[in-house]
Records
---
Amino acid sequence: MPQPRPLTFAAFVMNTASHITHGLWRQPHGEQLRHSELDLWVDLAKTLDRGGFEAIFFADVVGLYGDFRGGWDHHVELGLQIPSNDPLVILSALASHTEHLGLAFTSAPIQQPPFNFARQVATLDHASGGRIAWNVVTNALENGARNFGLDGLTEHDERYRWADEYLDVLYKLWEGSWDEGALLQDRASGRHADPSRIHKIHHESERYRVEGPFLVAPSPQRTPLIFQAGSSPVGRAFAARHAEAQFIQSPDPDGARRLIDDTRRLAQEHGRHPDDLRFFQGLSFVVGSTEEEARRRAEELDGQIDVAGQIAHLGGGVGADLGDLSHDAPIDEIETEGVRSILQWIAEGVPHRRPTVGDIAVFNAQRSRVVGTPEQIADRLAAWRDAGVDGVNVINATIPGSYVEFVDHVLPTLRTRGLAAPAPEPGSPAKTLRGRLFGTDRLSDRHPAARYRGAFTPQSAPTSIAAD
Amino acid sequence: MPQPRPLTFAAFVMNTASHITHGLWRQPHGEQLRHSELDLWVDLAKTLDRGGFEAIFFADVVGLYGDFRGGWDHHVELGLQIPSNDPLVILSALASHTEHLGLAFTSAPIQQPPFNFARQVATLDHASGGRIAWNVVTNALENGARNFGLDGLTEHDERYRWADEYLDVLYKLWEGSWDEGALLQDRASGRHADPSRIHKIHHESERYRVEGPFLVAPSPQRTPLIFQAGSSPVGRAFAARHAEAQFIQSPDPDGARRLIDDTRRLAQEHGRHPDDLRFFQGLSFVVGSTEEEARRRAEELDGQIDVAGQIAHLGGGVGADLGDLSHDAPIDEIETEGVRSILQWIAEGVPHRRPTVGDIAVFNAQRSRVVGTPEQIADRLAAWRDAGVDGVNVINATIPGSYVEFVDHVLPTLRTRGLAAPAPEPGSPAKTLRGRLFGTDRLSDRHPAARYRGAFTPQSAPTSIAAD
């Protein structure tokens, strides 16, 4: 029987003070308040790189969550993802201080015209030696839409059609505009590049017209590694077509297995191989040298959770203002049917007979938490791996503390169990992120972007222009 | 009599192999071919930081120059600003490896929606401790416009109205959305920020609708230092309103004096102080230990200039295909009146009785060149300073060679003459770029952006929301 593949680890962060579990920024040893300082991220990236994490993964949004108690005052008081800084522009600093770490950021088509976005990303892929990943999202926030000139949120499925169109332009620029071998940089002849191998793309579609050529020569990966996190049917179909890695948040290994099997099947229907897609489960960890110590630390953390913040985040994400609900109200007593059914859906798995709004909000922070000794954590991770999960997106309680602890106290045990690969030796040859995950620098031939390779090459192009 | 102010020095570069003087990338000791590698720029930034340069200044374009001999094949062969990488996304790496160096990049409104651009820039201003400058340009290239969904180039003066509108949104986000003191980060009370001091901007204008609030807390400079380089009447009026530093390319100190006096007068008409605007002259340097050695090196450089490349760049920038003109044709024999008059305008100062197309193209590369011993260079720079120039944008023949040479062999002599300030001591308190140039971190109260300070603050805002 072949040895099962080790899990892959990414640090799940956001360039903000209060990302997922609200209230935790108040901990004295949490440094996430320093998120505007580059050193926080550089130091974290170094820790992850030395520890053998495959990537740092920056979540992002470009607007306020929906209202809570009729407005956004509480968001500001809580620090609920405001302020938040751009993740993409700090990646070159992280690249320059690390050797092997993948650098994943989140961006939505609404944020930048494709030509500029493609150029920024390709520049970073060069700068990092091919370690860039892009988490493709479609902005799901009303305020985000109104920060970008729209009246309000674009309808859900239409957002995915938009993302499809955006990716189409990007693939043409990244994969099609420059043929292999176009860059010559030949000092002797004075030929810098070969014009017969560089092409305009003349893209025209509903939202975009882009002439090209692309301005950046092919970077190590060309197209960055594509992450996606959609869980709706349209979102999963999108992931099945485009994604190389999917970020999932399943309540348990069985749920993950069903989701993964389904999505791999979908990917096959789109002409891809089941293994062309990797799945990262979001999990947080509370470690102790004994189970008792771990449980005590978990209880301490629970006491620091800002319940109102969790409710604001929960409602703000699903577009329902839950601010007037009592934390103690059982959700089956909620009168508005839409709100009730959303909460009941979220409440699946909550270990209370009649969960309240507060129960759900806090449980939402706890449900993906693994509490125990390193050995117990290894057992739990083995179950996730056996369910088909390829990697873990490690959620933090503190930055950098949660990751220092994971690197120093959990990964060594995981390695003895074959659940984590050894960290690359410092100074060992660096791979691209795709090379590290899939063994190849470039997108698989089965990926839809591959159709643009050579697609703009004239059939009988001259190989050189006349000499002067 | 007060001691004249020392000059300020910036390195004028572009993230490309062949920026201004074409053919020089072929030199064996030039490393500009490595422009996609982060280390080239990190190492250069360290050299400039240690040498006391005030800034590194990245030029940029987002498309091909206009046709040469009916197409763009020669652009590619020559490397004429293709490939070129995005300058903005590499700045955080340069920030993390330097202490004092200002980081200036170029961007046009066409490139990004204002909300995303404002956030990227503010994130970088935080990450660098307030060392970011933005060179505001309006894309002047047909292909650039067609890379961003337009049919073709927007009319010149309309581009500046567009830039005015773009800046208006940005100023609201950077200066108005967050009042001073909004960020609390108070672990004890759990109040992360004060909602009464953070505001939506509700911007609506011809091209932009942006609701806000801004997502980034005020960075050290809030608005980055604003550079501008327009030389047309509309461009100079724009600079007089918005710019804090203007990049000029005058043929001689007298021309600089006239331009500077005129623009300072214009600035005053816009309610600003003449000294609110600083002027950087673009100059390149060929240094020798004797005048003879310097002249010999300059001649060697001349021999490496690609004349066709200079002509392609010249014509591509002014929108005329000069590819069919013989290099040896005197320009007064050119039949197309538009082309002839543009070239005659450019030819002003060319030391030939009847200059040819080739003469002009090469002279264009030489006209801003200072050749001599460090002492002779100091004499020439004294003349520029006496004409009112505040700083020099140092053009290179090789990267990093030209800057290493300038730091090691020219700046020490300039310092003995009071023409350059001492380099900041390593480890000495870092200033913002605006602090270094103007003695203040924030935009002057006389700047048009200052009107938005406090502009969105309700007159009787509550200072806190009710506690839970």
---
Amino acid sequence: MSLGQGLTNFLTSDLYGLTAEEYSLGRSNIEIVEAMITAGIKVIQYREKEKKALYMYQECLKIRELTQAAGVTLIVNDHIDLALAVQADGVHIGQEDLPPQIVRQLIGTSMILGLSTHSPAQAEAAVQCGVVDYIGVGPIFATQTKKDVCEPVGLDYLDYVVKNIQLPFVAIGGIKMNNIAEVHRRGAKISALVTEIVSAQNIPEQVAAIRQSIYRSSC
Amino acid sequence: MSLGQGLTNFLTSDLYGLTAEEYSLGRSNIEIVEAMITAGIKVIQYREKEKKALYMYQECLKIRELTQAAGVTLIVNDHIDLALAVQADGVHIGQEDLPPQIVRQLIGTSMILGLSTHSPAQAEAAVQCGVVDYIGVGPIFATQTKKDVCEPVGLDYLDYVVKNIQLPFVAIGGIKMNNIAEVHRRGAKISALVTEIVSAQNIPEQVAAIRQSIYRSSC
């Protein structure tokens, strides 16, 4: 997939899926990705903090095959070397990862670079550095999924980004069926949901219901 | 430093230093590397498991400057992206990291690739894969430094490597002042010591004493 195709998925999607094996009811990351693809999710991030690199590689290689065949954008969290090894469409980094300019040097110009931001200053810096393709905006609400996450920044930061930042962004953090309408009503085009998707028994049904919730927001 | 220069340091040295901040008596990895350089150690591995990538990068960048200026070979443990980002001389991986062939693709041909091995089968595989520049052989003795290490393989595995494996190797694991003579008498040319160096109050004096111990082995 070219950079353009990978980004187009991002720019035209409503949902951004992430793996989170410990919340996946005993299913593997691979099974979850298969279900997300079936559900029509077009952007999937492989996020895995615990496993040894070899097992992440083996798993992510399979996920790369599945996403490639389905025309789904695959973003790898944190591990630049893993992203390069499996030829992912992009990488997603946080504020305490390698600096974006350095990551851009490592990945070249044909991979998407996403950066988590938690404040107006971080969003402005992401714009200024000139190498970031999209930002994460959050955590909008309280979340238990990430262990090293900061306090929720609330809807105010989302409003700031919608009004002031030109970069594409994904809203993330504590977004659920019952609050996603508000997030999209305020201007988010795409939202990342973790447990609300991976913890569902039937992921395609759950995703359809989440999409209904977004749709209701625009009525 | 070219691949050749970096490897020459490896092939002509007796000691291989590693960082281990939690055993460094409150000194930073940077201070420890400075002391190792003063002590005349020519191969240093940056090993850091706990810190966020950004802080590893900032620290390792400084260590890269120090080692470069001193003509010391810098090897980065595990983190291929970090090694590339700081332009280290090489990377060192374990059996549960990205496969050596994949790592070689990521680092190109101008960086050293080291691989930990713990058995004759792993040493043979390292030779067969054709992309590894040196192997780690150990743990020779019991060690508490690494949390995810296997049981000591003892001197038998060292003897096997000396007799059967053509690749350069570094002996590692529980090597101390009082047993390094035996390791070198059996054919090791270079040994990696962690706590025995980083936990010394005066690292140059300690390294001189360790070298005396090796020297006594050849009498």
